Amino acid sequence: MTHGDDCCTTAEDGVESDQQQQPLILERLEKQQDKNWKSVVSHQLKKRCSCTAERAKSKILGFAPILRWLPRYQLREWLLGDAMSGLIVGILLVPQSIAYSLLASQDPIYGLYTSFFSSIIYAILGTSRHISVGIFGVLCLLVGQVVDRELALAGYLTESSVSSNSSGILLAGQRNDSVGVECDRSCYAITVGATVTFTAGVYQVLMGIFQVGFVSVYLSNSLLSGFATGASLTILTSQFKYLLGLKIPRPQGWFTLFKTWYSLLSNLGNTNICDLVTSLVCLLVLIPTKELNDRFKAKLKAPIPFELFVVIIATLASHFGHFNTDYGSGVAGDIPTGFLPPQMPMWSLIPNVAVDAFSIAIVGFAITVSLSEMFAKKHGYTVDANQEMYAIGFCNILPSFFRCFTTSAALTKTLVKESTGCQTQVSGLVSALVLLLVLLVIAPLFYSLQKCVLAVIIVVNLRGALQKFTEIPHMWRVNRIDASIWLITMATSALVNTELGLLVGVLVSAFCVLGRTQQAQVLELGRATTREHYEDLSSYRGLGTHPGVAVFRYGAPIYYANQSLFKKSLYRCVGLDPVKEKAYRIKFNKKNKKQGKNTNMKSDEKDEVEAGVTATFMNSSCSLRSLVIDCSTILFVDTAGVNALKEVRKDYGELGIKVVLAQCSASVLDDLERGGYYPGDEENKVTFFTIADAVHYLQSLPTPNGDYDGKC
């Protein structure tokens, strides 16, 4: 290894003054001895199980945060903003709740129930002041897929075989054995949806009990965004049958996107012209008006509820135009008023839907926590991830007894809620009052509302997710790894399977993190001319090196998966592979002995061969006596990593090159100590807290004798 003479001279000039400095010495704190496990368990049990008035009060207030903030509610300052935002969100929830019921394969009334109960429960248990919890399109899609699958397994007729105003019919009495009572298609659909919701809620509450709210950090923004965008493509495709007025079943299994488009194209000749015209008119109205709302949202005190206007006008047109009877257009049908009595989930269904419910639980919690933390950071307060797990879990468990399906936070409604003056979750209670008015009085008036209008509302609300495609070039320029995660997750969710997309996204993210540790390279460092600071020689100019001493840095943990790559990278950067060098030396010695036995060879020829071979393997290490490995960027070292460092020290030591470590963190020093890196003698347990101390120490050592003495 050679460097420029100027650099070497620069480094040598600072050596004399540096050697006058004393090395940095720090004394480690004595760690407390580990307590007996029995005493630890006893202490934890006393801490967790002790019951005092103060502890009981803290637990109650922590479980129901409304008891903490409601007594401090500032009536004059906050009530107007909460009432306004709650009223507007409630008005928006009416058409969206009815529309997203289609996506979940449920009757419209159950969407209204879901939004009503979730708004109340989250207001009591949630810690975020701004998010709107209710129906979310991706979760509705996941629930709808499970419902359709179970309906097919139970033997119910497909949607294309039943009228638009009636529920499915039981085939051959198959349902009587498992349900115990007569249950039509609509009844069984909401039973499946409620059972999935109950199971997902139980998962979320259990995760809250076991304090696993931290799992949300493993779902990156690129992963969640890609998953939501991929699911949005599936949602968009699933709504085309309503836009065209086609009665085709929802395909099951993988590659549903392709199956749906095949069914659509195959049945294109059966398009209902009335539904098609209505869909086009509604799209021509809603898309521009939504854009106007977005463009002038800074000037508008509240967004104009164009969706509600379209629903009212379309319902009146359908009713007086007799679209259902004269043109065969599908309508919402009977929407009863009031509430149905509670019912238990179908316990026999839980094994069938347990896996689906788990993915739904993870997605719902991740979306809720990410939105909660985003708006909490924006407005300067904090949220409790585990309490959010409880809140969203009970938003699923309790409403499931009242025929509701899965809920989570929804971005679009949350943005509306924040922009209209929301201060606390009192706005959620106001939204619930609006929904209650609809449930008790107004709901039957939506009998003639066409399903294609509801599909248009769903499609228009997908604009935000679909606009992510325009951001792909920007994402690629900013970070190619995150962009790749987004693309893979989106493609898998849309083209293969929605739930599989989430799993693939998590695995790809994990492999990307591991891959970064695999790609780390050893870098040679040089010293700055004005101070004791070392940086990468290939990245900065004006850095000097020390004769006979080389400094290297590895920017990743050293563990079982990359320890061999670390050694290869180090050997390549040093320019000397000690293993190959030793093998070459052994081969040379054997050849020497063999040649020595050849009495016919002249002594001059033997000397020439020996000198030539020696020069060959000595050339690469003629100026290197010592190596310093900067460990400041090494986060941890496992057993395999410690063994790799021991092998490096041993292999170079056999060539007369001393290897020392510098700037190890306390945890890395503990790993090295436990792994037996340091020999028993105290002389070799020298700890260097700076690179300069390690360099000065190595320069102060006498030049070792032997073949590898650094002399050419």
Automatic annotation (TrEMBL):
InterPro entries named among the record's database cross-references: S04_transporter_CS, SLC26A/SulP_dom, SLC26A/SulP_fam, STAS_dom, STAS_dom_sf
Transmembrane segments: 78-103, 130-147, 188-210, 222-244, 308-325, 345-369, 390-412, 432-462, 483-511
GO CC annotations, alphabetized: membrane
Location of the STAS domain: 539-698
Membrane topology summary: Multi-pass membrane protein
One GO MF term attached to the UniProt entry: secondary active sulfate transmembrane transporter activity
A Pfam cross-reference name: Sulfate_transp
Coiled coil ranges: none
CDD domains tied to this protein: STAS_SulP_like_sulfate_transporter
Compartmental location: Membrane
Keyword set, alphabetical order: Membrane, Transmembrane, Transmembrane helix
Keyword Aminoacyl-tRNA synthetase: no
Name listed for the protein in its UniProt record: Sulfate transporter
Protein's organism: Collichthys lucidus (Big head croaker)
